[in-house]
Amino acid sequence: MPRTRHRSLACVTVLCCAGAAACSAKKPIVATGPAFHLVPSSGDALLFPPIILPPSVPSSRPATETIHITLPIALTSSSSSKCSTEVGPFGLSVDPQSHSVQVSVPSPSRWLSDLQGKNEPDSSAEVESLDAFLTDVDRLQQSGCFADADANATGADSGTASISVRDLILENIPMRPHESYFNAYDYRLGHSGMDLKPDLRVKIERAYFRPPQAGEQENSPGTFLGLSTVAFEVARHSGEETSFSPSGEIQYSPPSLQSAASEARRDVNLARLPPQRRYRLYFYTYLVAEKHRRAAAIIGAADVAQLESLDNQFRTNPDQTCESVPLPAGVTCIDFDGYVTLSTQLRVEINGQPKFIEWGTRVEDVLPKSQIPRQLKTLRIQRRFGTTEYDVRFDPKDANILSLVLVGGDRLN
Q1: pLDDT over 80 at 288, yes or no
Q2: Of the four, 17, 48, 60, 164, which is 20 to 30 A from 69 by CA?
Q3: What's this model's pTM, rounded to 2 decimal places?
Q4: Which are the contacts of 79, defined by CB distance < 8 A and separation ≥ 6?
């Protein structure tokens, strides 16, 4: 993730247009109804999802009060008091009478402090406890505590496919604006995996080298031949299963490389992977991989536990490949070795025009560069929550909005 840069908006008139295509430069339109809220606090901020009222909203809870989220999740006949867990400040319990699941997360002030890792000696441990909590949630769902999550929990239409309880919880946790990849893709800085979902594109770039001559080092700049590039869009079938579709043909630079670049033709196997309930990209280094070392792997399975089990096995045995390990039934695996990098791009809409942007792009990065700051009169941001799009509301004077990283499906005007 890129470093967050805060810039003053003192000379910029930026109005949050929530509910209108444009708004007056003198008085912003106040909209009603659910929305994301960017709430500043102590020089930082938290982005709250639509169903949580942050401290800046009238009649909402104090910043020091634990947040309780009620999710309308279908329970099974076996749901009981055993279908609960508590790890650090996070907790989950079921209420069979109201047919709901209640999730507890830290108060806004405590959680922001934990994320910043400054004010509490054990804050880092508390953030890590979230991983253990989510692992417990997966275990409870696998043990039959919950039926499929109710589509209405995230605004989905009746009859559409549901998502896991883990995903519902991720979507509802307040995060800092430059860390909202966690809500969308279960990714945090320092972790090596991210969920692959629609509105993402995987780009594979592979480098080629000729055999070294006398006095040359292998794979040195002098032996570099060129690059092949191919991309695949992430697709969702029937709202449940994920697969990959080619986004154009393989590109070679220079074009003459095509006759010698046999490894690039192997990369197209990504499009031949069977549809899976979950696909996850694991990257092992930010640098081009060494010879005979994996740069990345894409693993598909029905649940997170299967994905993490195989990833842990790879980390314990870094020389193993998808072909050399026994895969559990129903698990799909493809790895990428050699001089190759995998990157993700996100599809967003800017002023009505869809485009792909690089991973890590912030609001600040897509603002018009040709206009002086004081000419920017309106800024409207919409983000998907479940299957519904909501406005992102923010204080026009709060520069934290500039550090909001964009996720797939975001709309900016």
Answers
A1: no
A2: 17
A3: 0.81
A4: 94, 96, 145, 146
